[in-house]
Amino acid sequence: MKNKNKKSLFDLAESQQGYFTTQQAEECSYSRSNFKRFLSSGEWIKELRGVYRLARYPIQDRPELVLWTLWSRNKKGIPQGVWSHETALDIHDLTDMMPVKMHMTVPKTFRRNQKTPSALFLHYEVLRSKDIQTRQGYFVTSPMKTLIDVANNESIALDQLELGVQQALKRGLITRKEIERNPLAEILIRYIP
Questions:
Q1: Are 143 and 94 within 8 A, CB to CB?
Q2: Three-state SS for 134?
Q3: What residues form DSSP beta bridges with 139?
Q4: Residues 6+ away with beta carbon under 8 Å from 165
Q5: In what order do the strands lie in the sheet with 82-83?
Q6: Do both 166 and 93 map to the same domain?
Q7: Contact assessment for residue 84 and residue 92, using Cβ atoms and an 8 Å cutoff
Q8: Exposed / middle / buried, residue 184 (Cβ in 10 Å: 0-12, 13-18, 19+)
Q9: Contact 103/72 with Cβ under 8 angstroms?
Q10: Residues 71 and 39 occupy one common structural domain
Q11: Per-residue pLDDT tens digits for 8-60
């Protein structure tokens, strides 16, 4: 195996906090027949079916965000999931809540041959590109979209929603003008101080 191939797998895994899929490894010229060797040598760790992690890559904060994002990939290997709702509130650090389940929004056409893991709660919606932010190895709904989602779902206490809106305003993640101009954000107006 050429060193160039190992480097490209490392670069790809680095962009995903050390994680990669079977398909991605094969695209980096790793033969599936050699996977067992990398696993038994301890270079790779199997995390989920078809998802691996470089063993020596340092564990990042919230690695489960990348792991489940890779779980959500379609048949072409493209992740479909976007962290949303209560999980996105936590990612954006807008409330004191710790969600019981991890909330992910997937397209309405999303299908997996396996049962949805108990740790996940899936929401089905087609998201606009302006409502999605890219992080290292995963996607999350924008602060505005996140607040609109939790307000419309009435899934959190009103005091937490108010705290979320105020934190987002205080930190400049959203503006009062954006709320007033966005017809979908009308529900948030009452939480503006």
A1: yes
A2: strand
A3: 134
A4: 147, 174, 188, 191, 192
A5: 120-124, 102-106, 82-83, 138-141, 132-135
A6: yes
A7: no
A8: middle
A9: no
A10: no
A11: 899 999 999 999 999 999 999 999 999 999 999 999 999 999 999 999 998 88
- The candidate with the shortest Cα–Cα distance to 120, out of 79, 63, 69, is 69
Q: What torsion do the CA atoms of 9, 11, 16, 18 make, to the nearest 10 degrees?
A: 70
Q: H helices within 29-183, ranges in order?
A: 35-40, 63-71, 85-91, 143-153, 158-170, 176-181
165 and 143 belong to one structural domain: yes
> 138 has which bridge partners?
135
Residue type for position 8: S
- Residue 193 corresponds to which tokens in the numbers above? 């101080």
What's the token pair of residue 64?
């489960």
Number of domains composing the chain: 2
The structure tokens 């709702």 sit at 85
Q: Do the beta carbons of residue 16 and residue 70 sit within 8 Å?
A: yes
For residue 10, give its domain range.
3-54
Record the pTM: 0.88
Residue type, 95: T
Let me know whether 48 and 113 are in one domain. no
**Residue 108: what residue type?**
K
